[in-house]
Structures are given as C-alpha cells and as structure tokens.
C-alpha cells in the first residue's frame, strides 16, 4: 500500500505546527496533498491489477502442490506429470457441459459459458505449446514447493519447466514470458 499521502500530510502538519485543518483550497499544500492522494490511488490500482494477473499462476502452483502432497512428496515421472496436467486442463469440462445443456435452444451463450470456453481453449493451447509448471521431478524442488506459503516472491526459488504436448520437458524461467 502506498504511503505518499501519509508522508505528505505529516510533513505539512509539522510545518504548520501540528494542524492542517485550515488549508486554503488552492494553496500549494492542498495541491501537494491532492497530488499525493492521486499517486496513492494510482499505485493501488496498479498493484491490484498485478495481483489479479498473477492469480491464475498462483492457483496452478497450489493445485500442483496438492498433487505432490497426494503423491506423498515423492517426485513424479514425466508420464504422471502429463496425466496431472491433462486433469488440470480439463477441470472445467464438466461445468461447461452442464451450462451448455442447461441453455435453451436458440439462446446465446451466457457470460460464464463464454468465460469457461475461453479458459478451456487457452489451457489446451498451452498444453500443446508447452505447459508451464514447477519441476515435479526434482526432490529439492518438491521440498521447496512444500514450504511455499502462497506468495509470489517465493516462486522465483522454484525450478520451472515447460512440458509440451509431445512430452518434451525443457527448463524455463520465472516469471513466465507472455507473448
């Protein structure tokens, strides 16, 4: 959270002898306070946008952490990883089919149906091109994944890989590069 407004308010109060109640509407200090408030709002908006953008990857990591826990913290081989990726990619299929069946004939698709369709197609495309996940073949990486507390910053400690639809595993960097 940005603190420019608090710092500016404190500086002005110090200069004015402890009170900032009697500022003229168009004074320099009022303009400084307004500018600081606008900056804080802009920074909060950018931070919220960033958190929203990072949420799908955080959900993915938590899903694969649960997969590792189900496997008793043992490394997975490539075929097991591919099957778990396939489960992850097709997690929305059932809900999509239910919504599609519930829709009356001749009616346009609902917003939720469109959203699920976009998610499914993007996940399937990523599965073919190279699915981005933490390396689950390494014991060291699995131990790090188990210690993960949910923060974005900790994810840079993990080793990452991309697994293509053909089954090729290649190392990757964090954060993922979006084109």
From TrEMBL:
GO CC entries: nucleus
Top-level taxon: Eukaryota
Family: Belongs to the TMA16 family.
Protein name: Translation machinery-associated protein 16
């Amino acid at each position: 959270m940005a603190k420019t407004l608090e710092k500016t308010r404190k500086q002005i109060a110090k200069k004015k002898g402890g009170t900032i109640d009697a500022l003229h509407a168009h004074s320099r200090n009022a303009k400084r306070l307004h500018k600081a408030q606008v900056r804080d709002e802009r920074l909060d908006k950018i931070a919220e946008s960033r958190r929203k953008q990072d949420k799908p990857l955080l959900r993915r990591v938590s899903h694969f952490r649960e997969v590792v826990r189900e496997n008793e913290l043992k490394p997975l081989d490539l075929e097991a990883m591919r099957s778990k990726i396939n489960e992850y990619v097709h997690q929305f299929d059932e809900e999509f089919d239910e919504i599609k069946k519930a829709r009356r004939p001749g009616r346009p698709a609902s917003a939720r149906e469109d959203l699920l369709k976009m998610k499914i197609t993007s996940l399937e495309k990523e599965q073919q091109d190279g699915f981005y996940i933490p390396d689950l073949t390494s014991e060291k990486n699995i131990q790090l994944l188990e210690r993960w507390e949910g923060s974005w910053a900790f994810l840079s400690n993990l080793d990452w890989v991309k697994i293509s639809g053909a089954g090729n595993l290649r190392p990757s960097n964090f954060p993922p590069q979006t084109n």
